[in-house]
Amino acid sequence: MKTLTIATLVGTIILYIFLAIVHTVLNPMIHEGDFKYTANQDNILAALTSANLENGLYMIPSVPPGSPMEDHEKYMTERMGKPWGYVIYNGEMTYGASLFIMSFVYNLITVLIVCIALAAASNRLTSFGQRLWFVMLFALFVIFANIMSSYNWYQFPMHFLKGEIIDIVGGMFCVGLWLAWYYGRVATKVAQ
Hints:
Strand content: 5-15%
Radius of gyration: 22 Å
Order of helices and strands: HHHEHEHHH
Distance between the termini: 19 Å
Structural class: mainly alpha
Helix content: 55-70%
């Protein structure tokens, strides 16, 4: 339990610091172009506000909830070649300590999952490289199961997704270096 706790806490701190650096110091290189700018933003926000939207994600245009599949299919056929978009609408902007706390919690859960899997596979992963590669498989899993799926099905633009991919690959690589070294050290102590 001590090994899992140390591995997880140190890995979480490494991931948190990596992501903080990426989103602050390296932001102009990695995340600056994530979101497009429009000079019409005030008009768009006024239109969204006047629409009395609930907070949420909207695909515009779309069919009403509960519409039969035939309506969806007809609608998709009629909309081919025409403009559409996603809107994430929030009635008020909030920014505070809770965002940073939850980021740490999510990083903790991520690293804990990787540590549990690494511990379960540790008797088969006998080298630093094998342990590092094992951790990197988690990054690849997230990229192809989620990010590239969003690129494919929802057409999320690559200018946005590239930063997410860098966050995942870079973060898991840093965590993987730590875990590969630490679990190797633990295995050496157990063998003695």
